[in-house]
Design goal:
- The protein is mostly helical.
- Helices cover 44% and strands 5% of the residues.
- The protein contains four helices and two strands; from the N terminus they run ααβααβ.
- The chain has a two-stranded parallel sheet.
- Helix 1 runs antiparallel to helix 2 and helix 3 packs across helix 4.
- The longest helix has 17 residues.
- It is elongated.
- The chain starts with 5 loop residues before the first helix and ends in a 27-residue tail after the last strand.
- The model has no long low-confidence stretch (mean pLDDT 87).
């Protein structure tokens, strides 16, 4: 298994012309990989749900402080996108945070008084 750090992985992805290292996405990808892998060579990283949640929060704060704010939902999507590709590298494991799904739930809506719930109507 090859030892990697953020710089080496970015180099590999740039050589492959990976979509995460396009000019518009590079700063975000670089920050996420630096926060995940750092500069030390490693053979593997394992991020649990708590670590990924902290990574998303820190990424969101970094974007706010750098003058390029994004919604928290977008921060979660960007971190998940990078971690999804990081999971394809041998020895790397990260939990992907689930995306909330809005759903119409008619059973949760208030019902007018006097209407029954039975389906026989």
């Amino acid at each position: 298994m090859e030892q990697l750090n953020a710089v080496r992985l970015l180099g590999l992805w740039q050589a492959e012309k990976h979509p995460l290292v396009q000019a518009t996405r590079l700063p975000d990808t670089q920050w996420i990989l630096d926060a995940t892998l750092g500069g030390t060579l490693t053979q593997g990283v394992s991020l649990d749900r708590e670590a990924v949640g902290l990574l998303i929060s820190n990424f969101f704060k970094w974007r706010q402080s750098s003058g390029r704010p994004i919604p928290y939902r977008q921060a979660r999507k960007r971190v998940n996108r990078v971690l999804e590709h990081l999971n394809q590298v041998p020895g790397m494991q990260a939990v992907l945070m689930p995306e909330p799904v809005l759903a119409h739930r008619p059973t949760a809506l208030p019902r007018p008084v006097g209407h029954s719930i039975s389906p026989s109507r």
